[in-house]
Amino acid sequence: MNRMINGLRRTVAGLALLAAALPALAATFAKGADVSWVDQEESSGYVFRNSSGTQTDPYVLLKGLNVNSIRLRVWVNPSGGWSNGADMLNEAKRAIAQGQRVMVDFHYSDTWADPSQQTKPAAWAGHTVAQLQADVYAHTKGILDYLKANGVTVTWVQVGNEINSGMLWPEGKVSGTTNWATLASYINNGYNATKASFPSAQVIVHLANGYDDADFRWFFDALKAAGGKWDVIGMSHYPSTSGWQTTNNQAYATMQDMVSRYGKPVMVCETGMSWDQAATAKAMLADLLTKTQSLGSNGLGVFYWEPEAYPSWQGYTLGAVNASGQFTAALSAF
Predict the structure, then answer these.
(1) Which runs of E-coded beta strand occur in 111-239?
(2) How far apart are the C-alpha atoms of 35 and 91, rounded to whole Å?
(3) Is position 5 within any domain?
């Protein structure tokens, strides 16, 4: 009888500890949005409205939808200046004003970086690998110090964007077993620069195609063997409106494998679905949130990519606002 009572006491105590931990996990879980286009959209005359049609700051609208974290990209010397340091600072300060945490997404390019293109900034074009290592460190630390000096605390830093094939091509382009030491050196310089500016910031290495566990294994096995450093494994996840359940399950299997294989937490840094399929997008996002949160402290968050993108904005159709600038039902999953 005493053994049974003691067992019950241990069970009750364990449940109490779990119950105490759940609010903390819920508070730290990132329900996020990448809104790097906001300033540019507003400068082009686009506005955002609440459900009653009243023009409202999009950061306020997102906060009302439980978005507690904002992701912002930064390019080195972009044409037109959008997504440079000053533009990102303005957007980061708007997020901080709403109590939202900030992720900085370094592309290490003057334009879009993804699996199909990882073009060096023009100013770095003729540099050696050693110079590029120094460039990554200086650019990363320079931007982060600039944010810090202007009152912005950074919670997460992405060292590269969708770097399935490496970054700063051609020297940092990985294929098979080639160039991993170079890529690892770039990542480690970004990692070290981040820690020098924000010691508690978590450094994310981010790949596209979260459904493809084999590609994630290939990449992180090779990066680990080359001495690469990271705190978080990030993924992009863009399922189709038909069959999204299968793709969500595949992404979840990748998350579980990454946690088990490398002992690192995971995060969905980008997700999205067609703006005019809001009900389906909401169901997909709700399921993705549930799956990610089920990993406990190893599931750090989910970020919707550019939900404020108008249906007609630069040909992008995976935002989550209608033609009047009102957020659709998709984000109500948060």
Answers:
(1) 156-159, 202-207, 232-237
(2) 8
(3) no
Q: For residue 312, what pLDDT is reported?
A: 86
Total residues belonging to the chain: 334
Query: For 95-141, what is each residue's pLDDT tens digit?
Result: 999 999 999 999 999 999 999 999 999 999 999 999 999 999 999 99
- The answer to whether residue 42 is catalytic is no
Q: Is 9 within the bounds of a domain? A: no
Is the residue at 302 inside a domain?
yes
- Residue 3: inside a domain, yes or no? no
DSSP 168-190: STTTTB-BTTBSHHHHHHHHHHH
Q: Of 41, 91, 270, 306, which is the active-site residue?
A: 270
Active-site entry in 91, 162, 306, 308: 162
Count of domains observed in the chain: 1
Could you tell me which of 304, 303, 332, 298 has the C-alpha nearest to residue 318? 304
CA-to-CA separations, 332 to 56, 99, 226, 237, in angstroms, rounded? 17, 19, 42, 18
User: Is residue 25 over pLDDT 80?
Assistant: no
How confident is the model at residue 26, as a pLDDT? 61
Domain of residue 48 covers 30-333
**Total-model pTM:** 0.92
CATH number (domain holding residue 273):
3.20.20.80
Asked about 162 being catalytic, the answer comes back as yes
